Amino acid sequence: MIALAGPNLPHELLAAAGKHGGAIALGLDQPTPRAQQWLESKFAPHAFALVESWAAGAYDHLDAVLFSRADDTSQRLYYYLCELQRRGLLAGPRPLIFDVGKIPRTSSRDLTVAAVRRLAGELGVGDAALEAAIVAGNRARAGQPGGSPSGPVCLLHGTPPPDRRLHQVIEAAGFAASGLTMEELWLSPGPAVAEGTGDPAAALGTQLHARQQGARSFADPAAFIRQSVETAGASAVVLWRIEEDEAQTWQFPAEQRALAELGLPTLVLTRTDWQARDGAPAAIAEFLAGVAR
Amino acid sequence: MTTAANTAPPASVNQRSRKMLACTAEATAYQKAFGQELRRRVVEDREPYAIVQADTPHELFHAMDIPIVTNQWWSAYISAKQLSTRYFDKLVEAGYPANSCKYCSLGLACSVANESETAPWGGLPTPTVMVARLTCDCIQQVFGQWANLLGSEFFPMEAPAWTDKDPQWFAHSRDEWRRVYQPDRIAHMVAEMQDLIALLENRTGRKFDEGKFHHLMEQINVQEGYIWEAAQAIGKARPCPVSIAEQMPNTMIPQWHRGSDWAVAHAKKFRDEVLERIATGQGTSGNEKLRLMWIGAGVWHDPGFYQALEESLGAVFVWSMYMPFAGPAYIRELQGSPMEALASRVASMNETLHLPPWMNGWMVAEAQRCGIDACVLLLPPDNRLSQSGTKLTALALEDAGVPVLMIDADMVDAKIWDHDRMVGMVADFLREKGLAQ
């Protein structure tokens, strides 16, 4: 099986190969002494848990782990893990990288399509199997439960949290929580992939190249947060970014301006702890207590 | 070992470096005159120009005679005028995060501050295009927002995955570059460069001259060949004839102008001066006992740091990446394909300096080539890209018998740099390792 360790990865391709191993299990609460020897401080926090688990043999049952170039931590981990294996400091599964391009330009789309074809070749997946997986994936998307929650909604925007601990705080305050966790982001299939094109690798590559979410997205941040508010039907927003988020945190001024224009109650929490050990839950609870439902 | 820098205001004054080579003064004078000329072309004459990252294909702009302002050079220029703290504070006031990457964002900070009375050149006018390779998550945000602020267009370039990993890349980069840098990566970079040329031709009306470009690439090989030759000689020479404080400008200033007649002539002059000093036994210090390696960008605001321990401890910084990098990063047998050769250069520059196995493979080989006794490694706290690869490199160096001191400091932000404290840290480290009394 192949586990996923990043966003914007080709789920349909792994499914077609019968090797989709889901998101890699991280074990976030463990101490990470070995990982800290090898990783610098600006890696996203989950990287330390991943490398520590890798060193402990937690992934030895996997054939491979697929990293993504759509996220700096993910792509950098690929190189680090390859090197640690080369030097005999680690064993475990084979690190792979999916070379997704996000620049809105034909050459970047072509680069992504080539990455799909390359991985399909490695996994022995032909066009017919990939097309069938695309059709099945689209059916699964269509079958997702939809509809709006009955109560008020709070959008949790910014850094994807490790799990639903912040969502639970929002729900305890009487709001439905909208916003993906990191694992949900990694497993998110995105919009439907074009069917019946005669070139399923190109169809999948085109969808991956165009996806709007993630650190390397070229989506306009103000438009994206407005769209997220609208889609969720949110009446309040928590804009939450962690200390190590050095990429999308640049979008703060644009996001804040967009939210001010919308006139929504907003709580901004910056340079926070990813595991929310820093008072963020209390701040969110206090904020939402003051928001009219 | 990791040591934190003090975040209190600096207690000591940063130091200028001591220069011994005639060509160093010539290089800095040329650069100063170039800065004035660039300002005239860009600010007064309002020629089309570009703001570009250091690891982008400057050669295309040179071949089209389009002036460029390199972000890293501009950052260093602002920093040298002691304006970094002021502009970073303005960035925070504007709602940007205080933990942002400092090296890439000082130019943006200057534009956000929008202070024509303090900004170098009164601030930059609108460039025709801004170009950056996406080697981290941060840079597309910085350049995208900077381009919006200046009313310009951002031309991002991919940094494709590199799966054919040769730790000995530097031994084969000159003649086996197609294999070393991966054919598909080279092809992609060529496609992007062709798009960029088309954009530049369209926006500026200037034409890309293939003959001129081919000649430029040949001249760059000549230029970097001189630098490479001098670097090889410095590695073997005892004592070290030239401090890194002089290696840097004599490599980097010609490199900003790579392939020009002046750059080629200057590189030759520098090589000749280095060889002459070696032949006559002249060292940068009369007291060389320890040979140190500096890993990281230059500390532009305190160049005297590098020479501070030469007399007291005989500790001489003989190695920084800029000069020895010239050979493997720049020299390419053109093999009738200058655009592909350039693509191989651009598609690897950042990766070989910041990612395993290229970074550590090269640094260990260089430490061995130059007889390094100890290494000082910069670990900027808020810059993932500059941090990248440093711990694995430190481990590899220590495995090879080279002790490493890692300093948490930023090469641009003077706020967290204290000359005396930093010099003291290095001295303590050398004593702790039993390398100095």
From TrEMBL, chain A:
Kindly provide the name given to this protein in its UniProt entry: 2-hydroxyacyl-CoA dehydratase
Protein source organism: Alteraurantiacibacter buctensis
Upper lineage ranks?
Bacteria, Pseudomonadati, Pseudomonadota, Alphaproteobacteria, Sphingomonadales
